[in-house]
């Protein structure tokens, strides 16, 4: 199965609580952190909600 690398590039300060919880669910707690997830619709949906805070590498 393909994987996606997600990197948090902007701060979560000032973001709505739902977006902070989404970042937590992705495993991103600090700016600059990179996590790897399986490519599936659930992960894609979470990335879409916080696309202004993260960079995605396929």
Can you summarize this structure?
The chain is of the alpha+beta class and 58 residues long. The chain has helices at 17-26, 41-49, and strands at 3-8, 34-38, 54-57.
Please describe what this structure looks like.
The structure is a single chain. By secondary structure, the protein is α+β, with helices and mostly antiparallel strands. The chain has one domain (3-57): Ribosomal protein L30/L7 (Ribosomal Protein L30, Chain: A, 2-Layer Sandwich), CATH 3.30.1390. The chain is 33% helix and 26% strand. The protein contains two helices and three strands; from the N terminus they run βαβαβ. It has helices at 17-26, 41-49, and strands spanning 3-8, 34-38, 54-57. A three-stranded antiparallel sheet has the order 2-1-3, with no helix packed on it. Helix 1 (17-26) packs across helix 2 (41-49). 16% of the residues are buried. The model has no long low-confidence stretch (mean pLDDT 96).
For the structure shown, list the relevant keywords.
58 residues, three-stranded antiparallel sheet, Ribosomal Protein L30, Chain: A, 3 strands, alpha+beta
Q: Output the CATH class name.
A: Alpha Beta
Mean pLDDT: 96
Query: What is the molecular shape?
Result: globular
Radius of gyration (CA) equals 10 Å
Counting H and I runs of at least 4 residues, what is the number of helices? 2
Order of helices and strands: EHEHE
What is the CATH superfamily label?
Ribosomal protein L30/L7
Largest sheet: 3 strands, antiparallel
């Amino acid at each position: 199965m393909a994987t996606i690398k997600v990197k948090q590039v902007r701060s979560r300060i000032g973001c709505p609580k739902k977006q902070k919880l989404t970042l937590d669910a992705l495993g991103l707690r600090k700016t600059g952190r990179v996590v790897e997830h399986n490519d599936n619709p659930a992960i894609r949906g979470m990335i879409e909600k916080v696309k202004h805070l993260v960079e995605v590498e396929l």
